[in-house]
Amino acid sequence: MATATSPHTFDTRILALPLYENHHRELAERLVTWCDEHRNALVGSERPEATGLRILRALGDGGWLAFLDGGPDDYRALCLAREALAYAGDLADYAFSVQALAATPIRRFGTDDQRRRYLPGLAAGTLCGAFAVSEEAAGSDVAAIGLEARETETGWVLNGGKAWIANAGIAEVYTVIARTGPGPGAFGLTAFLVPAAVPGLRVEPVPMIAPRALGHLVFDDCALPREALLGRRGAGFPIAMEVLDRFRMTVGAAALGFARRAADAALARARERPMLGGKLFDLPTVRATFADMEVKLDAAALLVARSAWEIDQGGCRYARHSSVAKLYATEAAQQIVDSAVQIFGAAGLVHDSLLERLYRQIRSLRIYEGSSEVQQAIIAAAIDPDRTHRGAS
Q1: Which domain holds residue 111?
Q2: Interatomic CA distance for residues 309 and 300, integer angstroms
Q3: How crowded is the C-beta side of 300, counted as CA atoms within 13 Å?
Q4: Residue 371 and residue 158: Cα distance in Å, rounded?
Q5: What is the pLDDT of the chain when averaged over all its residues?
Q6: Residue 156 and residue 225: Cα distance in Å, rounded?
Q7: What pLDDT score was predicted for residue 388?
Q8: Do 135 and 111 share a structural domain?
Q9: Could you tell me if 142 and 105 lie in one domain?
Q10: Coil, strand or helix at 225
C-alpha cells in the first residue's frame, strides 16, 4: 500500500514531507531495521506478562527507551516508534507505549529525587511502570475519580480501586491519581507514585480479547510516605490531562501501524488469490476497497504527523490536534482491518492468524486514553469554546 523503507512499515512519501526532519527519516530506517532483526523477539507464545517484560528489556537494550531519562521531547519520533512497533507486533507497541506513558509524568512533574530513583530503570527497561487513572465508574471522565487518599501524620493512606490498568501485575511502580480533597470534580485530585510491593495494594488480573498484562488495582489501607506525592497537592487532574493529551496522537500512530500491516497483508493476498479467471485484485469492488484503504491511511498518517509536529513546535493547540488524530486514525484503522479480513475471507477468521489477531488488537484503541465519543466532545469544544457562554444560535 505504500512506497516503503523496508519492507512496508512506513510510507516514505509521508516521511518526505516538511512535517518531518532528516533525523526522523533516519530514525524510521533504524526502527525498521531493528524490528526486522528482532522479529522473533517481539512476539511470543508464553504468557503476555512474560512476553511484555522480555520485550521491554529488549527495547531498553536497543536504546529505544533512553529518551525517558533526560532525552528531549520529540513526539514525531515517539509516533514513528509506535507506528513501527505496532506494525511489528501488538505487544511490542504495548510495552513501549505503557512505559513511556508511565515515565512521562515523572519526567515532567517529579522531584529530582523521584527522577533519579525511577527514570534510569524505566529508560533501561529493567523497571516496569504503569499509569493508573481509570476506575470502574470513572473511565474517560477523569474528574469523577473516587479513589481516596487520606492525609496522615506520616503521609497518605489510599482506599479504593483502579480499573483496566495496563501493566497491572508486572509494573514495579504505578503513577496513581487519587482524590485528596473535598473540592468538586477535578479540583480535589492528586498524583502519587506507588511502588507495587507496598502493603495494601493487590492486583486482580483481567483477561482481554487481545491478551496482555492488564488488571484492576485494589487499595486497602495502602500507606504511602509524604515523598510519594507527585507534583503538588491538587494538581492530579492537570497532570493526568496533560499526559493523556500528549499521548492520544501516539495512539493514532499505533493504529496506523496496525492498519498498514493489515492493508499490506490484504494486498498481497488479493494479488495472489485466483478469482474468476484472474486475481482477486482484478475485481472492481476489491480495487475500490483498496482505494478506500489508501485514502484512510494517507489521511491518518497526515493527521498524526501534524499533531506531533504541532506539539514539537511548542504550539498551544496540540490537544485538539491530538484528539483529531486519535479519533480519525483509530476509527479508520478499525475499518481497514475489517476490510482486510473481508479480503481474506474465511482465512481471516482462523484463530491466531495475522488478520484475526489484528482484528482483536485494533478494537481497544478506540477506547483507550479517551473513547472516540470523548474525542468528539473535545474537538467540538475546541471549535467553539465560548458557545456555552453565548447561548445557542
Answers
A1: 12-124
A2: 14
A3: 33
A4: 27
A5: 91
A6: 6
A7: 43
A8: no
A9: no
A10: strand
* Judgement on whether residues 135 and 20 belong to the same structural domain of the protein: no
List of residues 6+ apart from 160 with CB closer than 8 A: 135, 146, 147, 148, 178, 219
Query: In terms of domains, do 229 and 260 share one?
Result: no
**Is residue 186 a contact partner of residue 143, using CB atoms and an 8 Å limit?**
yes
**CA-based nearest residue to 229, from 128, 114, 103:** 114
Instruction: Assess if residue 3 is contained within a domain.
Output: no
253 and 174 in a single domain? The answer is no
In contact, 75 and 144? CB cutoff 8 Å: no
Taking each helix axis from N to C end, the angle separating 90-109 and 236-272, rounded to the nearest 10 degrees, works out to 160
Record the cell numbers describing residue 200, joined without a space: 495494601
Instruction: Verify that 264 and 348 share a domain, yes or no.
Output: yes
The span from the CA of 5 to the CA of 41, in Å, is: 21
Task: Give average pLDDT by consecutive 10-residue segment, the chain, 393 residues.
Answer: 56 94 96 92 79 94 95 93 95 96 96 97 97 86 88 95 95 96 81 97 92 94 97 93 93 97 96 90 96 97 96 86 96 98 95 94 90 90 62 33
Q: Are residues 163 and 174 in the same domain?
A: yes
| Residue 369 bears catalytic tag | yes
Q: Report helix, strand and coil shares of the chain as percent, to nearest 5.
A: 60, 15, 25
Strand partners, 132: 176
Q: Select which of 135, 294, 369, 373 is catalytic.
A: 369
Rounded Cα–Cα distance for residues 138 and 189 (Å): 13
Q: How far apart are CA 113 and CA 117, in angstroms?
A: 6
What phi and psi values does residue 153 have, to the nearest 5 degrees? -65, -30
Q: How far is CA 132 from the centre of its chain?
A: 14
CA 226, chain centre distance (Å): 30
Q: Which of residues 202, 235, 268 is at a domain's end?
A: 235
- Residue 29 has, within 13 A of its CA and on its CB side, a CA count of 6
- For 283, the 3-state DSSP assignment is coil
User: Looking at the chain, which runs of residues are DSSP E strands?
Assistant: 129-132, 148-151, 155-166, 173-179, 189-195, 201-205, 214-225, 229-230, 274-275, 278-279
* Total structural domains within the chain: 3
Between CA 290 and CA 279 the distance in angstroms is: 14
